[in-house]
Every structure is written in C-alpha cells, then in structure tokens.
Known about the structure:
about 30% helix; alpha/beta; about 20% strand; single chain
Amino acid sequence: MKLYLNINFRTKVGENLQVLVLEDGTEEKIHALKYTDNGNWTADIDYFSKSIAYKYQLIGEDRSILDEEYSVHHLTFPHNYEEFLIYDSWNAKNFPENYLNNKILKNKLRDFKPGKVTALKKHTHLFRLEAPVYNPNWQVVMLGNCEVLGNWQYLKTLPMTQTDFGIWEAAVVLPQNQMIDYKYGLMNIESGEVFDVEYGPNRWALPNSEKNTLQIKSDHFFKFKSYEMYHAAGVAVPVFSLRTENGFGVGEFPDLKNLADWAKETNLSVLQILPINDTTANYSWTDSYPYAAISVYALHPQYLSIEKLEYSLPKDVVEEYTAEKDALNELSLIDYEKVIAGKWKYAKIIFESNIDKIFKDRNFKKFLKENEEWLLPYSAFCVLRDKYKTPNFNDWKTHKKYIAGKIAPFFSPKNKDYETTMLHSWVQYQLHLQLKDAIDYTHGLGISVKGDLPIGIYRYSVEAWTEPELFGMDFQAGAPPDQFTDLGQNWEFPTYNWEAMKEDGYRWWKNRFKALEQYFDAMRIDHILGFFRIWRMPMSATQGILGYFYPAVPVRIEEFEARDIYFNYERFCKPFINDQILWDYFGDERDSIQSHFMNNHFDGTYTFKDEFDTQRKLAEYFKTNSFDWAEERLISLAANVLFLQEQKGDDEYVYHPRFNIEKTDSYKYLNDNEKWKLAELYRDYFFQRQDGLWYQKGMEKLPVILNATDMLICGEDLGLVPDCVPQVMDRLGITALKVQRMPSDDIPWYDPQNATYMNVVTASSHDSSTLRQWWQEDCQLTQDYFHEQLGQYGTAPWSLEPQLAEIIMLQHLYNDAMLAIFPIQEFLATDKNLKNPNMDEERINNPAEFPHYWRYRMHLNVEDLITQTDFNKKIAYWIEDSNRI
Length: 885
C-alpha cells in the first residue's frame, strides 16, 4: 500500500525534513520529504504493515539533525484501502497528550475499556485526536461546517470513540465538494451537554473523492481550558515516617495502604514518597540516608513487614518479637540500628524455619530468574559486604573486581554461601510482593504513587562494583553553595561517565526507569540539574565549596593572557595565607598552628606542609589527633583559593573559578585592578558562557531516557538553576518544582498564584524546615510574609497558628499548577489537636548536616488520622473546591 505523509513545518534556507520509520523502537528507514509551498512538506512511502511508528527530523545541509520529534507518531490502518493520505502536525513532547498520557491517566481510568470505531465499508476520512481526558464522564466530540459534523450545532455534534488511553477516533464520509472546517469539543456523557469547544482558529480537512484512499487527520494538542486539564493534590511522606499499629518502629510497605485510605477520605489522589532502595552499607544510623543506595534496584529491608511475610514467626519467638515491636513503636523517632537489626533477626528466623518450602516455591524461582541480572550481583555483594564487614569492595579479600563468571556460583546450591545468598534474594522477593500489593491496593482506590529517583549512586554500591566504567570514581558529586549551606554539599557519590553511558543508548538509565515503573505512576528526579552538569570535586576535597561544574567551558591559560591577567599558579590555585589571615583565623594560637601545619616562607606568607595540603588530609589527621578545635578553621583555610585546576590530558590543564570568589580572603588581598578583572571573568564563567553547552547536554540525555518510561516526570530544579534548564524542561514536558520559600528569582518568597500549569507547588520539602519551624526562623521575614503574602494586619504571632497554616495551604491549592503536594506535617499543622507538640521532631533532613540522621516519624497513627472526620472533611472540601479531585 501507499502512504502519503504531509506536514506543515517552517524551515530556513538549507534545512530539510525527513521521516524516520521505526520498528520496535529501532531505526528502520529514512525517507526524505519534498517541499511544496507555504511550509508544506510531503513524502510517499511504500509500506506493507497494518501499523506504523515514525517521527520527523529537521536536518541541515550537512545532513546533521538540527531538531527532531521526541514523541513518536503511531497509526493503525484499516485493511480495505490501497492508499492513505496522512496529514500530520509536528508532535512536540510538551503537548499535553504526550506528557499527560501516562500511568496516572491509566490509573484514573482504571475501568476503561477501549471502544471500536464504527465500521464503514468505505469512509472518506478518519479523524484521530490525541487528548488525555481524565474525567471518565467526558467524551470528545467533533463539530463543523457540514451535516455529518452537525453544521456547528452543539446538539448535533459527532461523538468520537476512545480507542486507547487518550486516543479518540471518528470515521466519517464527508462531502466531496467542500473544504471542511471543524473543531473538537467536550461533552458530558450523562447530560449530553457539550460544555466546551476548543479555542483558536478552526481546523480543516480537504475533500477526498478517491474511493480507495483514506484521508487520515492525525491531530494533536486539543486546546483545553485550564480547568479541564488534569489537576491533583497529594501528600508527601517518607515510607519510613509512617506510623501504624502494625509497624516495627518504622513505616513499612503495607502501611501505604493505610495512607491510601486516608488519602481517599480527603480526596487526595497522589502519594509521594522518598527513595526506597536499599542503603545498607554499615548497619549503622548513617545508612538512614535514603539517597545513598547500595543498589538502584534492590528495596530496603527496613520496609519489610515481618507480620506480612508468607510464613509466620515460630511461636517460641512471638513474645520476644511483640515486646521488641512495642518498645520501638513507643519511640517518638526511629531508632534505625535497632529496627534494621530486628528486621534481619526475625527475617532470618522465618527463612531458616521454612527454607525447604522456600527453595521449592515456584513463584520465588520465577522471581529469581526474571531478576537475575541485578539480583545475583546484589545478593553476592551483600554476602561479601557482611563477610568482610565493609561495603568497600576495594578492601575485600576476594572478588574486589567484579567478574560475572566468578559471581555466578553464588546462585549455585553447591556454593558455601548459597543459603545466605538466597536469604537476601528471598527478602527482596518478599519486599517486592509487599510493595506491589500496597501499590495495587492504592491504585484500586484511584490513587497514584510518585516515587523519587536519586541523581547519584553510593560510592561503594553494587553498580560501582559491577560497572565502574560508567562512573567517575576519581571524583565526588555534590552541589554548590545555596540557601542550605554556604559551603556547598559533598554527597561523596561518584560522578557519571556520560560518554560511556551514551555508547549503548543509556541502557543503564532505561533499565533503572523500567524497574521503578513496576511501582510508580510519577517520578521526582532528584537534582535534575545533574543531567545538564554536575558539581564535582576532587577526592582531596571534603567540602562542596572546592567543586566546579562538569562539563563546563573552562578558563584556559590563553584566556588569562587575553584578559591581561597574570596567571600565578601558586597564588591562584593554592590557599593564600599571610600573617593577618593567620591572626584572623587562629588569634593567639596562630604560632602553634603555623609551626605544626605550615611552612614559613619568611616573607609574611605561608603554605600547608605536604602532609596537610588538602582538606582530605586534614580531616584524616583530625580523626586521631589533637588540635580538634582548629579543624574547621584549617579545612576552611584550605579552601582559600581563587581557581581550581582540572587536568584535561597528559600535559594540559584548565581552570575553574572558585565559587563565591569575591568572598575569599585570597581575593581580599589582590589589588583593585586584579579584583576587577577576576570578577569579570567569574561572571562570564558562571552566568554567560555555559548555557549553550548545558542545553546541548540536557537535550542529549533526557529525551532518550524519558522516552523509555510511561511515568509522569517531575524535576527537582532547586538551587543555582541556569537559564537552559527551564527551557529544556518545558520543551520535554517535565514539571518543575516551586517551593514558596525557595524562589529562583531575587525575591523573598514565591507567590503560588503565579504558578503556571507545568509546576508542582509546595510549602516545604523534606530538605527544608517545616512551615512551623520556618515561621520562627526570621521574625522580620515572617512579619513581611504575614502582611504582604497572607494579607494580615498587625503583628505576626510568634507561632504559626492553624488558621494561618490553612491560608498558606489554600493559596497553594487555588492556582493553575498541575500538582499541589504537601508534606504530611503541613496538613497536621492546620489543626490544633493534631499538630505535633514538638515541632522540632518533624524536620526530615538538614542538608547543611552531613551525615544526617533521617529518623522522623509521624507522632500519631495513620489509622487514627482516618477517624478524624472533621479534619478529613475540611481537606476533602479544599481539594474538591479547588478542582483537584
């Protein structure tokens, strides 16, 4: 059969269009399009399959791809036509039908059954519209300037059939002697009322007089009014923070059911959680950090419900278990070490008591086989970690280097570590069953779940062990200084080797998204800026302040010369220390500090001795030596540099200005001319030269990765955000995060009323203080906020009163943002009887503290929250009235 593709697309001189026909997601064949007139392009293709997938590409004179569609066209052809005349429009990723046709839509329409287009022997036109309609009582209709389309009469519109999620079709016979003008509308199925018609100019279709030709109008971007788009509200709470009667001192996967029940009572339709992957490195409280997973696939054993396992505890340990459970549940905060020790103790008892049954379990065997690619190395890693009492595989006596063939025997019954390996695998199987059960239950209530994807991996993780070539193991990732800390953040994660990942089409990322998609409908990408550039530090640094952006357009020696800056490596790249700086840092102790840690050059300047010349060396020294009172000041002094050196090749070096260069003591001792020139260079480096490179890097990775998932993607884009990031996120249909007290502009706070649709708005986050804490942090800011944002008069109260917390919540609900998601603490702050008496126990994380103990737990049981009728009705009314139901 013959396909005639037509698209209107404006190009520049020398640019051309081509269409890429795909088969199973891989490139099949490229066809050039011919230009006709007025921006119209056409191509004819011989094609012999009943369905097709394709995308258009814009190419330059050198055949390079200048632009392309990131959302693919899909069409299915009736069998009784010889030719198909297809009219397309450029399918932009940021069309609602592309970013909203996701797992949430399928969850909302969980009872959906695809319809079939009324069969006609020969129809002239097939109209196909992609439009994600979230209300099951709404139907897309057509109206236009001919009898079939009702002659523009609302009572005679043509109903369309939803043949798949968000795909509406209508097959019609249209007049052969007139141009067809038409629009799409929405009809209430129950009342039959057409309550809206899309705005803008009419769409059109050409007449079709050929008997064996079907004209297909493949339409996009139904122009919904804002209130007709998907809007929702949700609650954010880490799984570990959930408190129920059945818990073991920590939230567990089955507790998500209780949270879903409460969400149903309050009309909330999204549950947002923190990362749930296994972080067990040392079995200590430092493992409570959920963003340092030892596996991007394995689930954390702390979320395992002992009582919901497939086998029961032996009767002789039930009393011991119950006593330990009751003691842990009495605590106001999580005791991570006791929780994780208890979980493993009882899981092992059950495993060993039922080992024969477990080994014969067909479903367990099936799980092993389907997940062997990640489960085998993970389980072996856990065995070796525990045997050698460290996750640092460099310190293991065996298997320091991962070799698949030598790890495979861990899954063999003949292996001495087989039972222990199976224990870890079985725990993962049980975690999967419990989480999947909770997710299925939540979906059954029409509620979606939003997960969290950490940007980094733990340095001593399964992935770092098995595929070290994918990571920059010689560097550390973090974040530059921001509102959380003046010293920046050092997460101690390795960076990514994006070039290696690109070679196989980002397989590692695609597999990661596929694993998460088993459970989640939406995904928060932590620190999405990392896909554009990462803040990286050498291993010699302990503080984020000694990092620089990578990739970046650096400063080369030639640029110093061009800017008439005399480059002195010792002065620019080494900590600058003179007599006055020593006095300012150490006062009367300066002589003893100088003689112990520094070389005296007898010209009023000093340098660190070789054994102390990096932050890392100083930190290691202070683990076992005195002078601990001086540790922080010496480490700070080690960061008193102007530039950071990066080695590009064997003998090539480039340079990056230190962040906040003008605040360094080193800068203070330059002359005015040097200060001016370096300040100009600094502004150019940070605010002008990088955007083009970072835009390219973001567009290189994100489309490929995002096309591998069916989840709604939300990007955490807080911090120092370059201009290219919102541009890329908008183009790819990624929602941005708006935290009121963390505005991107130079203003004291963000007004949620200004939020556009592609945003998630919230009053606080897991990284910030709670609203009640924030209210007391800066009295003058609170007073200004009280008067200017909340519209209140007089003096702001010292404590955030429940009625004020309500006002803050409501201003986040009544706006155009797609999602309004609030931490559970902020809901409770609106009720004087439900708020936590000790508000300082409610903060989840303080990024300025590393490592931080993540131990927040709700102060009341979720089951009790479900019984708070008046409280729940209040929230339910907010959600319904703000059109977020």
